Amino acid sequence: MTTTLFDLTFLLVAPFWALMILFPKWWFTHKVSESPLIVLPPLAIFAVLAASRLPELWAVVSTPELGEFTAFVGTPEGAALIWAQVLAWDLFIGRWMYLESRRLDISPLLMAPIMVGTILLSPVGLPVFLAVRRYRRSPVAS
After folding, report:
1. What predicted TM-score, i.e. pTM, was given to this entire model?
2. Which residues contact 43 (CB under 8 A, 6 or more apart)?
3. CB contact at 8 A, 5 and 45
4. Which residues span the membrane (predicted)?
5. CB atoms within 10 A of CB 35
6. Which of 30, 33, 46, 96 has the greatest number of C-beta atoms within 10 Å?
7. Which residues of 121-131 are buried (b: 16+ CB within 10 A; e: fewer)?
8. How far lies 2's CA from each of 10, 13, 43, in Å?
């Protein structure tokens, strides 16, 4: 079951990413992305996985120690649980970036690689987007 939930997590977020990257100007993409509820599917998987390991999870997050955290994440259930959390967080960040890029009229051709970078490594994609956003918001010198 854990492997199925792990695999399902990506399948649940991939359509939203595909819409934001491949069809950023489509009205449907904007309509779907307006709702923060798009992060609920991976969070539901997180909840299912967390419910089955709640005592261990609580111990790891309430008194974090590297060894215990490593041991927890080193299990299939722990890795799947963290994966669901990461994908939900990345989608939440990506959704904000998408909406902000549309508001600022940032080119989808520029945003596509930034969004892919965010899917793969959000700690890299987000700062790149913030730099682009800062530049886009700067007044143009006359």
Report:
1. 0.89
2. 84, 88
3. yes
4. 6-27, 39-60, 110-132
5. 10
6. 46
7. ebeebbeebee
8. 13, 17, 15
